[in-house]
Amino acid sequence: MKKRRMNAKVARNLEGSLFIAPWLLGFLIFLAFPLGFSFYMSFHKVKILPGGMQYDFNGVGYYREILFNSSEFYDQLIPYFQEVVLMIPIILIFSLMIAILLNQKLHGRFLFRAIFFLPVIFTTGYLLTEFVNQGEGSLGFLEKFALGGYLDTFLGDSSWAQPVKTLLNRFVLVLWYSGVQILIFLAGRQTIPNSAYESARIDGANPWEVFWKITLPAMSPFIFLNLIYTVVDMFTFPFNPIIDLIGTGNYGYSSALAWIYFLIIVIFLLIVMFIFVRITKKQNAARR
C-alpha cells in the first residue's frame, strides 16, 4: 500500500515536471543568460570598441551612484509609484464589478466580454504609444469642467496632486488595462456554486449581504492573483519613466538601474502580499 502511494506521488511529481518543462526550457535558453549577463555588466564599465566589448570592473559604483547620487531616479520613481498605488485598487474594483455584471444572464454577454478584452490586444506596445501621442485616451473632463482648479484647491501642495491629475487624464487607458483581470474574475465567479446563493436567498439575505458574505470571500484567491498581475503590469507600463531611464547607452549603468528597479518591484510585491494575507486572516477570524 505504501509502495503504491509512493508511486502515485512520483507520478504526480513527474506530471508536474513535464508541464513546467517547456517554461523552464524557454527560461534557460532565452532568459537565464541575458539576466546573468546584465547582472555581470552592472558591476563593470562597458565600452564598445572596434575589436569587441571591453569590461572594466567598477564594483558597486553604479549602484551607489543611482541610490545616493541620482536625483533624477527618485524624481521619476516617486510620482510614478504614487500613480501605481492609485491605479491598482481602481483596476481591481472595476474589473470585479464588470466580471460580476458579465456573469449575469444578459443578451449578448459574449459580445460584451469580447469588447472589454479587445483593448488588451489592440492597445499594446507601439500601437498604444502612438494612440496616446496623438492625444487619444484622455477623457478631457479636467479641462472641460475646470476640475484641475478644484484639485489644486483640495490637494494644495501635496505630492499626490500631479499623480491624481495624470491618473484622471489617462483614466480610459487604466480601464482598458483591466481586460485580463476581468477574465480572471469572471472565471473565479463561475467557480462559486449557485447552491450557495440559493441558500442565502432562502435565509433572507439581500444582494449586498450576499456579495460580502459569499462572493467576496470566495473570490479572495482570484483577487490575490489579479493583485500580483496588476502590480507587475503597472510597473511595466509603456509610459513608465523608469524604463526610459534604463534605455540609455551606458550598458553598465542601465543594467544596475534595471536590477535596482527589479528589487523595488519585488519588495513592493512582498509588502502587498503581506498586507493582503493579514487582511484575509483578520476577515476569516471575524467570520468565525
From TrEMBL:
Please tell me where this protein is predominantly located. Answer: membrane
List the PROSITE patterns. Answer: ABC_TM1
Q: What is this protein called?
A: Lactose ABC transporter permease
SUPFAM superfamilies attached to this UniProt entry = MetI-like
Enumerate the UniProt keywords alphabetically: Cell membrane, Membrane, Transmembrane, Transmembrane helix, Transport
Q: Which family does it belong to?
A: Belongs to the binding-protein-dependent transport system permease family.
**Any idea where the ABC transmembrane type-1 domain is?**
77-279
